[in-house]
Amino acid sequence: MILFRSLKSRNFKLFFYGQSISLIGTWMQKTVVSWLVYQLTGSALLLGVVGFVSLIPSLVLSPYAGSLVDRHDRYKILVITQVVSMLQAGALAGMIFFGYNNILLIIILSLIQGIINAFDVTCRQSLMVEMVNDKEDLPNAIALNSTMTNFARIAGPAVAGIILSTFGTDVCFIGNFLSYIPVLICLFMMKLHTPVIKRPLKSIWEELNEGFKYVSGDKELSSIIIVLAITSLFVIPFNTLMPIFAKDLFDGDAKTFSWFESAAGLGSIISAVYLAYLKNNSTLTKLIIIAGGIFGTSLLFLAYAPALPMALVFMTFSGIGMMGQTSAINTYIQTHAIPEMRGRAISYYVMAYQGMIPVGSLLIGWLAHLIGPRPAVLVEGLIGLTATALFVYYRSRQAAVKTA
Predict the structure, then answer these.
(1) What is d(CA 176, CA 25) in angstroms, rounded to the nearest whole number?
(2) Three-state secondary-structure class, residue 162
(3) Alpha helix (H) ranges present in 132-203?
(4) Residue 399 placed within a domain
């Protein structure tokens, strides 16, 4: 099948199967952490703090991670990050199992996971091209990876909702710890022929500077990264407020909150499957614009949805727009960046995507505290539409300059 054509590569198939299980555990833990924090504190601001510390390392460390990945064996780095992630998950599971529900410790462990992710995500994305035998299948592999991630985004919260109501939070955290076993087995079964890393003659700081010059010097590359940074800072963090929507606005419980996460995941899968079928990458810029419009518009309707079913429908459309935009940008960078700069180019993608979200989580938590959750989500939708409109204007100006 065209949809699964990249799975004919043995290494990518192993990666895909292992990560499919592990990511369900990751999303299960993410859902439970958000619910537990709000249950313990009742604070929108602390929800923002947890989101901030779990992702802020991507803003600070991603450029360094990109240079490190370009200098060393990416496969070994990936194995190390997965092992350390498993240890972090085990520490969190042990803390909850023994009834030590300490909010400060949860924040510290979330920060540790954020540091690991800064290296792990950059490494996984840049290693993708080496897992696929036929380089023409790379866009399909990226789209399938997004599909896998967003299937986990549906399954993880759904499983978390069932386990939370039946067995409790500790079983969810233990489940995430155990989910790392399959991914490590699959990694050890791989037979990757990674390029021989030459001893670098330049310092890592010189390479950081080279990476910045390369990204900023490519106007098309830099413009889509700026759009992603704005979206990640001001629009994507709307997710931070979903426990409040579920619990306070729609009088729900943990299962209701899991529906919100699953609805966004369903929309993301729809978007990712569409991208997986694409054969021509020339439409990526158009997709970025259309998806940005869908994302911003869906948040405007979600903000004042009068009933839960309607809110879940708009949540699904937000997932379509968010994943369509971020995946199209990811695919564009991976297919346009030169090989020796790929790790560093991807690190700026990670910085603009995951690095900006934590700052946005704090901002949306603070804004919701001041004006309420519904107006805060409305503001984010308006910013998303404005950013998309400015991107369209910029691209049309660039096109006019080229043809002049």
Answers:
(1) 4
(2) helix
(3) 138-166, 169-178, 180-189
(4) yes
CA distance linking residue 217 with residue 53, whole number of Å? 31
How many CB atoms within 10 Å of residue 212? 13
| The predicted structure's pLDDT at residue 281 | 62
The average pLDDT across 380-387 equals 95
Taking alpha carbons only, the member of 298, 26, 314 closest to residue 148 is 26
Residue 393 in domain: yes
What are the Cα distances from residue 256, in Å, to 30, 35, 291, 314, 369? 15, 11, 26, 15, 22
Q: What is the Cα–Cα distance from 167 to 178, expressed in whole angstroms?
A: 16
CA nearest to 35, candidates 191, 207, 208, 261: 261
Of 37-41, 89-93, 269-273, 349-353, the range with the highest mean pLDDT is 89-93
Q: What is the CATH number of the domain that holds 159?
A: 1.20.1250.20
At residue 388, the pLDDT reads: 93
- Cα→Cα distances 254→47, 135, 160, 339, Å: 15, 43, 8, 45
What is the domain range of residue 94? Answer: 2-191+203-403
The total number of residues written for the chain in this structure: 404
Token pair 């997932």 is found at 319
How far, CA to CA in Å, does 386 sit from each of 230, 286, 330?
10, 16, 21
| Distance between CA atoms of residues 20 and 16, nearest Å | 6
Domain count, the chain: 1
Query: Do the domain assignments include residue 144?
Result: yes
Q: Is 198 a domain residue?
A: no
Token pair 């991208």 is at which residue? 275
Which of 259, 252, 242, 249 minimizes the C-alpha distance to 377? 242
Q: Are 57 and 115 in contact (CB under 8 A)?
A: yes
pLDDT score for 162: 79
Reference 241, options 195, 292, 305; nearest CA is 305
d(CA 358, CA 53): 7
What is the b/e burial string over 19-53, where b = at least 16 CB atoms within 10 angstroms of the residue's CB? bbbbbbbbbbbbbbbbbbbbeeeeebebbbbbbbb
First to last CA, the chain: 44
Report the 10 Å Cβ neighbour count for 368.
23
**How many Cβ atoms from other residues are within 10 Å of residue 279's Cβ?**
9
Task: Give the orientation angle of helix 74-97 with respect to helix 169-178, to 10 degrees.
Answer: 160
